[in-house]
């Protein structure tokens, strides 16, 4: 509220919308430290609620043109996205896209509601910019999420109908099914389910109509047996069933949503070769690299909470996930779009992901520490990195360190 008051004062002194928007984002830096005083999971819930009710700044400034790109026939205003895990139940899609992300991924969503693992289950390693979580796919379930996404989809269609009746200066359709940005839906399986494929198929049938892309999450370390699905034959069988479920549905001229798989960073060279082979053989639309790690890379290994069970995210994950990203880019010869995720907290970090083979980049933990002000800063820094090294677009820089 202090931040909003300051931003309001800025608005009084200037009629420039861009300046006001900049002040509004900057003001959140005053509020964000207060979240560190709260229990980690309570702070998370408060942040989601704030975004859901519009108590977060809304980006009005256009992104630098160098950041725009097209992937899967979809136009992204910028390559910076919010990873799954923040908005697990699709409560705040509009507010989060409004922060200026190029795309937002909700979930993981399980078929049946489940509480997840016992609390406490989220631990801050603040001095390392890291978090350990063992949430275990806490989800309100497909029915609730489908209802929310359906309502948002209906609102979007009404707005499109209204705007189509007004003169337009562009024939290019911007944004995705959720509005001014791209929406990904991350699918999970229930902890007690004995048929993982059936869980993912149910997610496809219920949620794919609202998604600009779908993700099969087989990499959370907090659901027993889930990572075994990354094995070559298990993955091949699973992807075939999910692809078939998606393709048997009726689709408009835009076609079905792309299907991606999210993998772990804790994989051997052979594991990566197996996943790459499946991705190429089945023409998978993309891979997200990576989820959290069960290892404790330095300096997080010396933290008093390092022995807590669960997946580690944040800055200590960056090098490990980037290594896996680079390996996968070379194994797939750049034929499979990759989303780099893990330890991104600056524009330079995002740029390194792109040079290592990522077409798009996701963050999560850095947002928890840096708040909304982080988003425009990362985009501006990324644009500077691209221009500094002579790249005219994000696409031109993809895989530059692997050539």
Describe this structure in words.
The protein has 403 residues and is of the alpha/beta class. It has one domain (18-156, 179-397): Aldolase class I (TIM Barrel, Alpha-Beta Barrel), CATH 3.20.20.70. It contains 13 helices and 13 strands. It has helices at 2-13, 17-35, 40-52, 93-98, 142-164, 196-207, 232-247, 269-281, 318-331, 347-355, 365-370, 374-388, 394-397, and strands at 69-71, 74-76, 80-82, 103-109, 122-125, 130-133, 182-187, 213-217, 259-263, 286-289, 311-314, 338-341, 360-363. Strands 3-4-7-8-9-10-12-13 form an eight-stranded parallel barrel, surrounded by four helices. The protein is globular, with a radius of gyration of 20 Å. The chain starts with a helix and ends in a 6-residue tail after the last helix. The model is unreliable at 10-14 and 168-173 (pLDDT under 50). Its main location: mitochondrion.
- Give the number of domains: 1
- Looking at the structure, the CATH topology is TIM Barrel
CATH superfamily: Aldolase class I
Helix/strand-derived category reads: alpha/beta
CATH class: Alpha Beta
* Helix-strand string: HHHEEEHEEEHEHEHEHEEHEHEHHH
Number of helices: 13
Provide mean pLDDT, rounded: 92
Instruction: Bin the strand percentage.
Output: 5-15%
Report low-confidence residues grouped into runs of 5 or more: 10-14, 168-173
Helix content: 40-55%
Shape: globular
CATH architecture: Alpha-Beta Barrel
In angstroms, what is the radius of gyration?
Answer: 20 Å
N/C terminus separation: 49 Å
For the largest beta-sheet, the strand count, sense and barrel status come to: 8 strands, parallel, barrel
């Amino acid at each position: 509220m202090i931040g909003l008051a300051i931003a309001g004062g800025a608005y009084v002194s200037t009629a420039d919308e861009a300046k006001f928007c900049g002040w509004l984002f900057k003001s959140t830096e005053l509020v964000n430290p207060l979240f560190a005083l709260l229990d980690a999971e309570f702070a998370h819930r408060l942040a989601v609620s704030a975004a859901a009710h519009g108590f977060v700044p809304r980006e009005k400034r256009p992104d630098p043109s160098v950041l725009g790109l097209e992937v899967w026939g979809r136009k992204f205003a910028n390559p910076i996205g919010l990873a799954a895990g923040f908005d697990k139940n699709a409560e705040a899609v509009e507010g989060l896209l409004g922060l200026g992300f190029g795309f937002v991924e909700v979930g993981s969503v399980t078929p049946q509601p489940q509480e997840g693992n016992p609390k406490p289950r989220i631990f801050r390693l603040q001095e390392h910019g890291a978090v350990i979580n063992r949430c275990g796919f806490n989800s309100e379930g497909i029915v609730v999420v489908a209802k929310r996404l359906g309502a948002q989809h209906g609102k979007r269609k009404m707005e499109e109908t209204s705007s189509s009746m007004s003169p337009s200066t562009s024939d290019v359709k911007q944004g995705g099914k959720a509005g001014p940005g791209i929406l990904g839906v991350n699918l999970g399986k229930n902890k007690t389910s004995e048929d993982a494929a059936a869980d993912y198929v149910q997610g496809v049938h219920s949620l794919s109509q609202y998604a600009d892309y779908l993700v099969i999450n087989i990499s959370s370390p907090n659901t027993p047996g889930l990572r075994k699905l990354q094995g070559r034959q298990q993955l091949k069988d699973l992807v075939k069933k999910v692809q078939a479920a998606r393709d048997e549905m009726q689709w408009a001229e835009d076609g079905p949503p792309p299907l991606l798989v999210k993998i772990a960073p804790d994989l051997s060279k052979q594991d990566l070769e197996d996943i790459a082979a499946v991705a190429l053989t089945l023409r998978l639309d993309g891979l997200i690299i990576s989820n959290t790690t069960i290892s404790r890379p330095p300096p997080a290994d010396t933290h008093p909470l390092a022995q807590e069970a669960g997946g580690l995210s944040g800055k200590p994950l960056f090098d490990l996930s980037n290594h896996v990203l680079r390996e996968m880019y070379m194994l797939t010869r750049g034929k499979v779009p990759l989303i780099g995720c893990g330890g991104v907290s600056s524009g330079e970090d995002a740029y390194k992901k792109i040079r290592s083979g990522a077409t798009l980049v996701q963050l999560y933990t850095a947002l928890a520490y840096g708040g909304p002000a982080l988003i425009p800063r990362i985009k501006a820094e990324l644009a500077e990195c691209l221009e500094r090294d002579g790249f005219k677009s994000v696409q031109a820089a993809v895989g530059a360190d692997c050539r």
